[in-house]
Task: structure prediction
Amino acid sequence: MIYVHKRRIEACTYIWSILVKNRLRARAKVVELLKRTYRQYNIEPIRGRTKINIFDKEMATLFLVGKYGLGLKEYHEIFEEVFEKEIRSEYAIDSILSNGNPEKVLKEIMGSTDENAVFRVIRLLFTATLLGFRDEKELILILEKFEQSFPQYRKRFLSFKKFYIAFRIAESIAAGVVRNRLEKEALKHALCIKLNAMKAAPPDDLIREIALNVLKANEIEVNDALRKNSIELRL
Result:
């Protein structure tokens, strides 16, 4: 369902056209450029309800579009000076998926095992999954490994799974794949099983927030998918 992110990819492509032509190398300035461009394109960063530091987190999207969508890997200077966080996160992902110990990997590559480091890595892999650059199975595996290594973040992992399920449902509504509440509940149930998270079923208001404000879905179609006059599956 990458086409629901078409405008986001177009905005990032425009930013990359500026980066390769100009010596804009300060991350903070690129974050501001990202913010201005998204406003011009009338799009929101990939998010749930929280907007804390959201455009710095959205740099993951810009990084992925440049490296994999546009194939600009030869612009080493830009990647190294602007996207150090994303480069480290990707290196950590690959190391963990190659059977590296998550705690050891994060300490060595991210310099920390705090929540920010853990969820910076998850954010990059999550975004890559949405944009079709990584397999969803990798995200599920990383989450499993993190849950085993960092039990202190159990509630945060559950919250992320709830957000991920809501985002996938919102994508399906925006794409016209999910058209009524029964289809929405069936997809929710399937995703909860896939993520081994039966307690992570997201509320409709979170799905609505993402569908309408992040993905700019048609409001009538969103209302139809979330309407309560049909049978709801019990998880």
